[in-house]
Each structure stands twice: as C-alpha cells, then as structure tokens.
Amino acid sequence: MSKDVPTGGSGYVSALRQELIARNSSYASLNLLRHVTSYGDLPVVVYQQSECGRHHGNFISASYRAILRRPQWRRRLQKVHTQGRRSLPAKDWLWRELDSSLSSDALLMNIFCYPGVTQRMEVCRILGLEPGSLPEFGFMPRVPLFSEATERTEVDMKLGHTLFEAKLTEGDFQIQCAETHRGRFSDPMRRTCRAIQRSSRGI
Questions:
Q1: Following DSSP, what letter does each residue of the chain receive, concatenated?
Q2: 177 part of a folded domain
Q3: Could you tell me if residue 121 is inside a domain?
C-alpha cells in the first residue's frame, strides 16, 4: 500500500478499496477469468462463474468446491447484488453480491469454507472453537429484547458460539461499547454482552 495513505478510518478504507481494485483487475486479466467491471470512477471487478460451473474467479478453488457441495452454503451465493442493475452491464442473469471482488461475505466464505480450516488447532485456539465446527452464513440470531420485540438483524456468520460481522471496504461500520446496548436485551443476552465486553479488553 502507498506510504502516503491519508490518516483516519475513511482514508484507510479508500486506500484499501483502490488496492483491491488494482490487484483484482490485474489478477482477472492475467488469469483470463470471466469478469466485468462496474461503472463509475473506480471500476470494481465483478467475477462470473466459469462456463463449466465448477470455478469462480472470486473464490479459492477448494473453497468454491466445498461451497457447491453443501446446500446451506450454496444458497448464500444467490444473494442478489443490490446495485447490480444500476452499476453493472446487463446480462441474461442476476448479478450476485458475492461476485464482487469487494464482497466481505465472499472473503469470509473463502476463509472458513476452505477444507480443514476449522480442524486446525491454531485457528480453534484463537477463535475459541471446537475442532470441526461448521460455519453458518446469514445467521438470524432472533435475540429477545426487553421491549418484547425480537432483534432480527442478520449476522454474516455464526461459528461455534461466536457471531462474526465482516467489513472489507465499508466505511459505515460502527463501534460501540457493550454497555450502550446491554439494557435492550433480556437477561441471557445481557450476560453475553458482559462476556463480550470482558473478552474484548484483552484484544
């Protein structure tokens, strides 16, 4: 990355976006991968599945094969690209969010769908997992609130007892103290918030 990266969170996000765009443009061209670029000042590389259907430029081959074998994971690939109609060339199919080289969901799946990754003791120790845990993508926690409503926000991934939210180049990620939200939740979730707050002090 350039040494003259602007200071502040937005500067790093912008620099990372430019770096990913440049690297993916080179990678897609050198490897003759099926792809298009989005409209706009910073054209984002968006990949297409290979004609045989067994490969995809946005995925490690081993991860993609594992995703295709497991129906729950394969369904995640169908998540529609919300800006596809406005930002991408018209095709005979719907563009999917995980086709984009800037997709944080694709990043998660590349890592955690890779065969054997959750069997590795180093990974299990770092994340506090039981060996062999299977990730669940697009998890709906349905957390009960004191207002008797239910929190229905989708979480990117559940792995073991841990919830993961991935952000790659998004600039609107919010960081808040656990105390801010603890009062909204019922007793079990309040205990979870306290545990998260204690563990985060050591990170």
A1: --TTPPSSHHHHHHHHHHHHHHHHHHHHHHTT--EEE-SSSSPPEEE-B-TTSS-BTTS-HHHHHHHHH-HHHHHHTT-B-TTHHHHS---SS--BGGGBTT-HHHHHHHHHTSTTGGG-HHHHHHHT--TT---EEEE---EEBTTS-EE---EEEEETTEEE---SS-S------HHHHHTTB-HHHHHHHHHHHHHHTT-
A2: no
A3: yes
Residue 85 lies in a domain: yes
Query: Which domain range does residue 36 map to?
Result: 9-172
Along the 203 residues of the chain, how does pLDDT read in single tens digits?
A: 445 545 555 688 889 999 999 999 999 999 999 999 999 888 999 999 999 999 999 999 999 999 999 999 999 999 999 888 889 988 877 899 999 999 999 999 999 999 999 999 999 999 999 999 999 999 988 777 666 677 678 889 999 988 898 888 876 555 555 444 444 544 544 444 444 444 444 33
